[in-house]
Automatic annotation (TrEMBL):
<dbReference type="GO" id="GO:0000028">
    <property type="term" value="P:ribosomal small subunit assembly"/>
</dbReference>
<dbReference type="GO" id="GO:0043024">
    <property type="term" value="F:ribosomal small subunit binding"/>
</dbReference>
<dbReference type="InterPro" id="IPR005225">
    <property type="entry name" value="Small_GTP-bd"/>
</dbReference>
<dbReference type="InterPro" id="IPR005662">
    <property type="entry name" value="GTPase_Era-like"/>
</dbReference>
<dbReference type="InterPro" id="IPR030388">
    <property type="entry name" value="G_ERA_dom"/>
</dbReference>
<feature type="region of interest" description="G2">
    <location>
        <begin position="38"/>
        <end position="42"/>
    </location>
</feature>
<dbReference type="InterPro" id="IPR009019">
    <property type="entry name" value="KH_sf_prok-type"/>
</dbReference>
<keyword id="KW-0694">RNA-binding</keyword>
<comment type="similarity">
    <text>Belongs to the TRAFAC class TrmE-Era-EngA-EngB-Septin-like GTPase superfamily. Era GTPase family.</text>
</comment>
<feature type="region of interest" description="G1">
    <location>
        <begin position="12"/>
        <end position="19"/>
    </location>
</feature>
<protein>
    <recommendedName>
        <fullName>GTPase Era</fullName>
    </recommendedName>
</protein>
<dbReference type="GO" id="GO:0005525">
    <property type="term" value="F:GTP binding"/>
</dbReference>
<keyword id="KW-0547">Nucleotide-binding</keyword>
<dbReference type="InterPro" id="IPR004044">
    <property type="entry name" value="KH_dom_type_2"/>
</dbReference>
<dbReference type="InterPro" id="IPR027417">
    <property type="entry name" value="P-loop_NTPase"/>
</dbReference>
<comment type="function">
    <text>An essential GTPase that binds both GDP and GTP, with rapid nucleotide exchange. Plays a role in 16S rRNA processing and 30S ribosomal subunit biogenesis and possibly also in cell cycle regulation and energy metabolism.</text>
</comment>
<feature type="binding site">
    <location>
        <begin position="12"/>
        <end position="19"/>
    </location>
    <ligand>
        <name>GTP</name>
    </ligand>
</feature>
Amino acid sequence: MSHKAGFVSIVGKPNAGKSTLMNSLVGEKMSIVTPKAQTTRHRILGIVNEESYQIIFSDTPGVIKPAYSLQESMMNFVQGSLIDADIILFVTDINEKYDEGDVIEKLRKTSSPVAVLVNKIDKSTEEHVKAKIDYWQETLKPKAIFAISALLTHNVQAVFQFVLDNLPEHAPYYAKDELTDKSERFFVSEIIREKVFKLYEKEIPYSTEVIITSFKEEERMIRISAEIIVERDSQKNIIIGKSGSMIKKVGTYARQDMEEFLQKKVFLELFVKVISDWRSKKNYLKSFGYDQ
Ligand code: GDP
Ligand code: K
Ligand code: MG
């Protein structure tokens, strides 16, 4: 029997709705979604398996001009995902302006089929949608254009069908019971990072990394210890909050999500550690997994 398999890259600017779309295509919460730009730092694979096909979606950080080493590494994840892709889903917020010539150049040059997904149409008018579709038709001449709402899963099924129709004949790349290339530890650290993005303001989320220092599965519960890394003492104080009030919130919300994700009781311990300028130090980036 024939089998289809391939890599589908979801690319676009920060906050276009890439992670929301990925979660909706995969049907699981794989990628953290927040209103803040640059929440997604790594490339995350979400795998959909059926008897006759395997689709490997990859969510990427948004396309930006790198200002520091962490961002450089984030952009390398994006480059990698354009090169490997069998299909490219280019997500654009209907209300965003496009001036990053280089992304459009790269999308024009790729030989893989590209679909433009004009997202967040729930926040727009029919006329505006039509104008945007014309604009993208002119600018990129993609294989297909869809007007979608990733949030309301409007037209997401049509995007899925586009993917299936363009998926190459290939044997499965991953075992058919795998859902992602990332470990439980990775998702657990992402859950904490999501809470940090949601609970703190300004530069705090961007100055933060989370490291799972221990993950021990026992019969009745999982014991997890994590370090929240920040760049300065002042940030450490903000993370902790008055008498520990803020870090307590992070811990409570993160633990609830972890228990749902892992389907087991979780005992979570959080520590805060200062590593000055970790975002600009290659050795730290490497040890945090940004080593592409
Ligand atoms: P990413 O940075 O491209 O991964 O974008 P996210 O998936 O993190 O989404 C950024 C923000 O846009 C979040 O607040 C989402 O809830 C919101 N969002 C995503 N898709 C839609 C949509 O179709 N409609 C609306 N109204 N909001 C959306
Ligand atoms: K985001
Ligand atoms: Mg994202």
